[in-house]
Amino acid sequence: MIAKPPIVRVNRLFKSFSRGSEAINVLTDLTLDVPQGEFLALMGPSGSGKTTLLNLIAGLDQPTQGEIWVGNELISALSESELARWRTRNVGFVFQFYYLLPVLSAYENVELPLLLLPMTAAERREQVDRALDLVGLSNRKSHRPGQLSGGQQQRVGIARALVTDPTLIVADEPTGDLDSKSADEILMMLNVVREQLNKTIIMVTHDPKAANQAQRTLHLEKGKLVRDESMPRPIMQPARV
């Protein structure tokens, strides 16, 4: 089988923060590739740097040193305003606590990222309807978050992440606030997205069960990659839920 080319390339990455006169090293000399269409999990203890790495790849932060390429874009060289424009088109975010606006319907929450793009109302409606249909919530689009279960709210979050047709989907503990059944459904949904849309997904998780549904797991400790579990293993069969 021919290996897929990387969509994300991280080269000699360093990230540090200042605490008074002291520099705190969060990531140290980290290099990795993420192929197009891979579902990658990042694991490690608190303070290991996994969320920092996710934020850097998503363009939410900038490295102290090193390169980050997403597709043909060297995002580590972009200014903050350039990164903001790049994120709008290229990154979909899925959060642990959903971050849905309670006064808006599911449809309106999903539509929000599209309001930043030059699109007509008809074009927005088509993309929102398509995203909600993919996550099985077409019949809930007029419901507000308070009228939805936690699992349904996270499906709205996934639809919102998908609606701009992004290059990457980044998920920070997407099952951390869910019961076991709902968590399984969300992981299955992420695999549906990966398989049907060939999306690249990078997920931070503390849960080994969640990580086992990814195709590869990278373990970080003290800002360094210490283990790459890249051997094939069984994952949930994608299915409409």
Automatic annotation (TrEMBL):
GO terms for cellular component: membrane protein complex; plasma membrane. One of its GO terms (molecular function) is ATP hydrolysis activity. Transmembrane segments: none annotated. Residues 8-241 form the ABC transporter domain. Keywords: ATP-binding, Nucleotide-binding, Transport. Belongs to the ABC transporter superfamily. Macrolide exporter (TC 3.A.1.122) family. This is ABC transporter domain-containing protein. It comes from Tuwongella immobilis.
